[in-house]
Amino acid sequence: MIISAVQNPSAEPETLGHLLSNLGPLGVVVLIAVGACLLLAVIGKTGRKAVGKATGRVIVKACRAFVRYVTISLWAARMRMPIRLAIRLQPERWRSMTEARKLTGLKRGRVRRTPMGVDVRVTLGGSLTLESLTARIKDIETGLGTRRGAVRVEPGATAHKAIVRITVRNPLAKNVPWPVPTGLVSIKHPAPLSMNPFGEWTGIDLQQRILIVGASGSGKSSAQRVLAAPVILAADADLEVWDLKQGTESQHYEGKADVRITNAEQAKARLKWFMETELPRRAAVMREARTSTWPTSMTNRDRVVMVDEGAALIRELDDDELLMFFTFLEQARAFGIYLWWATQFPKATNLPSELRSQMSGIISLKMRRQSESRVVFEDLTKEGWMPHRLPGKGWLLLLDDEHQEPEESRAAFIDEKQFRKLQPYMAPAAPAPAAPAPVVPPMPTYAPRLIPDPRTDAAMDEAVQLTKETAGDAPAVAAPAAPAAAELVELSVPDAIRAALADAPGSGMSAAELVVATGRGKSQVYAGLQELTDDGVAVKVGRGRYVLATAAEVSA
Questions:
Q1: Segment (H or E) for 281
Q2: HSE-up (13 A, CA, CB side) for residue 25
Q3: Do 223 and 191 contact (CB within 8 A), yes or no?
Q4: Are 163 and 121 in contact (CB under 8 A)?
Q5: What is the reported pLDDT for 302?
Q6: Which of 140, 148, 233, 448 registers the highest number of CB atoms within 10 A of its CB?
Q7: How far apart, in whole angstroms, are the C-alpha atoms of residue 326 and residue 276?
Q8: Which of 446, 395, 467 is nearest to 195 (CA)?
Q9: Residues whose CB is less than 8 angstroms from the CB of residue 313 and which lie 6 or more positions away in sequence, other chains included
Q10: What pLDDT is stored for residue 14 in this prediction?
Q11: For the whole prediction, is pTM greater than 0.85?
Q12: Is the dihedral of CA 315, 317, 322, 326 positive or negative?
């Protein structure tokens, strides 16, 4: 070898790697086998036993790990969640995570699959409460390795139970298509407005004054179409649009809104008509019906006045006209007329306090500056109502009686082409009047008698008669009429709410669901709920949900 190296100085020295590469895979296996045999021969019997036990333990651990990995993988596939999350939801990993995050006492229960992820039922032990656990959501997200905003805590059936909702699929990655309603549409029904990150629809009560704000390009026009579509399809409501931008937006409502206002003069004339004609007419209808709330029906229809870019209207009204407008705004709701006000300039001059304070619902899309958020939500910006921090176009915050938490959601989307295809509700034509029934003369009560005529029947005996009437004969007495059917008695509002709550699920029913279940107005349902809660018949559970007190006691 030395001689060959001297003869060929450029040849590389033979290393272990070079020798193994020359042997090939089979040669390496043979070399390892020979080495193992020599090693076992050298270490003796005791050494061979120790090596066998160690090898057996390693093989058993590897088999157990493999089986556990396969089991977790199958469970993750059944739950449709990532394996990483499935591993961290295992009981031992959950305990170590809660101890590391100082959430001692948070015990994991059953895991259930949902359309957008999984729900983990947990028990609140130690000093944990629902409020303290909600405040530690970011710790749970970090411990489970989820994306930000993917975890939400909801109350359970009892105070020491809760549900940790985890989303693993983002339902808002693309535009949310507007769900086309089926069946008869009514303005009394909550309308789907947006979808939250957990795949749940957010409904809005259309029978209220609504403020719609958002910067240019934030999706405000599409949100207005989503709100207007159920009114167009409703059988008990009409829509009119005030568009002072030369009618550029209201052109899509041609054939859908029965009134279109495109300039300030038309708006002023319409406002005067409302105050002098329409409101008095509706007041007369309410007096005739002996009710203090507008009786919404297919005959007495609600009316929605949607004002697009309201700042332009404010600039066109003088002081007297502005005062009349504020009076109309205060009184219209009681007569079934609801104002929806949209603007992209939420400033103090364009959004007076007299207007802002009357709005019971606020839909805020993305804004440019924090000052605009403060004009709309005032002190609520300190509680998280900050629309200038929304992710982007179509995202919104909804504030009304049913939505008191700043939950970000993405509005449903209706493009202009789909919106033009909507057709207003057309009442079915009245059937042709049926032909009158033939008049049948009543049957005689007594049998007919033949009166003798002495001029024609002189030879006939006068005593002969076809029928004979005795002294005891008397007119027949009519049978007593059958008792009239029992009149249907309409339940009172508290009784109707109590009947609806009797069939409610364990989580209870919201006021909006009770409006649909009872068919009563929103103000009547709230008054009935107040009466039932004062009497102790119903109790409030969760966020704005009610159950019967007996059901709450049973669940407790």
A1: helix 279-289
A2: 0
A3: no
A4: yes
A5: 95
A6: 140
A7: 15
A8: 395
A9: 242, 244, 264, 267, 307
A10: 60
A11: no
A12: negative
H/E stretch holding 242 reads strand 237-243
pLDDT digits 0-9 by tens, 104-114: 899 999 999 98
Residue 204 sits at φ, ψ, to 5 deg, of -130, 140
Report helix, strand or coil for 208.
coil
Residues in the chain: 556
Query: What are the respective helix, strand and coil percentages of the chain, to the nearest 5?
Result: 40, 15, 40
Over residues 288-309, the mean pLDDT reads: 93
The answer to whether 201 and 195 have CB atoms below 8 angstroms apart is yes
DSSP 6: H
Helix (H) or strand (E) holding 50: helix 16-79
Strand partners, 259: 240
**Whole-angstrom Cα distance, residue 547 to residue 509?**
7
Mean pLDDT of the 217-225 span? 91
Q: Are strands 210-213 and 337-343 parallel, antiparallel or unpaired?
A: parallel
Residue 402: CA count within 13 A, CB half-sphere? 21
- Name the residue type at position 111: V
How far apart are the C-alpha atoms of 341 and 208, rounded to whole Å? 11
- Cα distances from 82 to residues 72, 86, 120, 147, in angstroms, run 10, 6, 15, 12
Residue that the structure tokens 């209220």 belong to = 208
* Strands across the sheet containing 117-124: 106-114, 117-124, 161-167, 151-155
Give the span between the Cα atoms of 549 and 508, in whole angstroms.
11
Distance, CA of 267 to CA of 292 (rounded, Å): 28
What six digits make up the tokens of 512? 């909006």
Q: What are phi and psi of 545, to 5 degrees?
A: -120, 145
In 189-277, which ranges are continuous DSSP H helix? Answer: 220-233, 264-273
CA distance 556 to 104: 24
Tokens 């069946």 locate to 183
What pLDDT band is residue 490 in, cutting at 50, 70 and 90? low
Measure the CA–CA gap between 9 and 32, rounded to whole angstroms.
33
Residue written as token pair 């043979």? 30
Q: 241 near 259, Cβ under 8 Å?
A: yes
Side chain identity at residue 492, one-letter code = S
Contact between 165 and 119 (Cβ < 8 Å): yes
Q: Which residues of 318-342 are buried (b: 16+ CB within 10 A; e: fewer)?
A: eeebbebbeebbeebbebbbbbbbb
DSSP designation for 400:
B
* Whether the predicted pLDDT of 210 surpasses 50: yes
**361, two tokens:** 């619902």
Paired with 409 in beta bridges are 396
